[in-house]
Amino acid sequence: MRRTIRIAVLIASITALLAFPSGALAADVPAASSFTHSQNMHPLGFSPRANTTSPFTANSDLAFAGKLAFHGNYDGFRIIDIHEPDNPVQLLDYRECAGNQGDVIVWGNILVRSWNSPAPAGATCDGEPVLPGVFPGGWEGVHVFDISNLNDPDLVASVETECGSHTATAVPDPANNRLLVYNTPPAAPAQAWTSSRSRWTTRRTRATCGSSQGGAPATTPA
Length: 222
Known about the structure:
Blueprint lengths: L15 E4 L22 E5 L12 E7 L2 E6 L2 E6 L7 E6 L6 E7 L2 E6 L8 E2 L2 E2 L11 E6 L7 E7 L6 E7 L4 E7 L6 E6 L2 E6 L18
Antiparallel strand pairs: 1-2, 3-4, 4-5, 5-6, 7-8, 8-11, 9-10, 11-12, 13-14, 14-15, 15-16
């Protein structure tokens, strides 16, 4: 898969789109009127997506690349065109990989999505069965998508991680044509894995899931 070196990935904690003001302040966005934000940032636009209580879903994370926002959630992820910040347009509401957490990172044409709990029997991702994992409880970890076609993301890899993936951070390494991903499971040591020419390798620290031990990233030559 062709890799793009120019990366712009930022993580935010709310689904309102924020920007630093230039000149006069933008008009308030009614939908964001109850949001708490720093005084030097002002909502410019809003793209709603409701949560549900049964089954429980949550809007978990945002990543940005160029003029696109990628909105991770428990059902999958959304892709939103934000080239006009006051009028964000949803391009895709992808719900074919519903596993909880849903934090996302983006690098070029790669999107990585966190899956934080053991997959139940019959779970699928992009139409493919989520197979039982090697760790007790069921598969959990991260799914890797090729998003070169924004209208039809393609699952290209499933990387099982011990204790799942609560959040992840990307560190591009263009000198070695690879992407380093620092994975943090819930209350367990951090892990790291790499990609290179569609190969995905993992080096993990081991601990009992749910422990409070710390961890440090490791890199694996690709």
